Structures are given as C-alpha cells and as structure tokens.
Amino acid sequence: xxxxxxxxxxxxxxxxxxxxxxxxxxxxxxxxxxxTRHEYLCELGLDFAELHNQGIDLVVARLSMSFKTxxxxxxxxLSCLNVKKEGIKYIFDQKIYRLPDKKQCISAExxxxxxxxxxxxxxxxxxxAMERYKQT
Length: 136
Fold this sequence. Notes:
Elements: E1 7-12, H1 26-43, H2 48-53, E2 56-67, E3 76-86, E4 89-99, E5 104-116, E6 119-121, H3 124-135
Antiparallel strand pairs: 1-3, 2-5, 3-4, 4-5, 5-6
C-alpha cells in the first residue's frame, strides 16, 4: 500500500540494473533514490547543478536502506519521498513501490546537509522552497 508522499516519480527497471540473480542490484536503488531527490528539487524550482555553481552542495551525510521485495527487469515502480527539516539536516523518508501491485520494495532514510562554499551551513532558500511546496 502506497502511503502519502510529498513527491513521487515513476521508473522502469532496465536490464543492465540487474545482477546475476536477476534482481536489481542493491547499489542501483541509491541511484533511484538520488534521482528522485534531484527531480524533487527541480519541482521546487531548484537546479542541483546551479546550486553547485552558487557554492551550495547538498550532500548525503547518512543513508539507511531496508530491502523488502526485489525488483526485476521490466518492473515499473514508484519512488516516493517525504522530507522534514531537523536543524540544518534534511531527513528524506523514501520508499519504492512496485507497480501495479504497490508492494513495498525498499524503505530508506537519507540525511542530507548543505555545504556552502566548503562549510556546513543553512541553505535557507532551499528550506523555504520545501516549505512552500508542502503548502501547495
């Protein structure tokens, strides 16, 4: 069952993402999660590359993933995220659900921080954009 999510993105598993067991390799899930976060930023009107050009890098500080049901080549799935702010940390609660049965495949908690001109800091306009998005 897909729980409420702030942002969702649909994908399809490609053959080369699978290992010898015929399931998506565990490391590939990090790519799915990262792409979902980047697309979420785009939805907020923020460009990840442009942020970098401004001296703002949003980086992963911690990642925890729990694997539930494997995905296989050709499977369609929904990558969902919710985000909350704790101090200067952004805590992304991310889940992946296989389609069409909506069976949960993974659950992940990703903690990201902003590094501004080489120093840990507060990216206020990123936080403000996230708040505005929640209110729409």
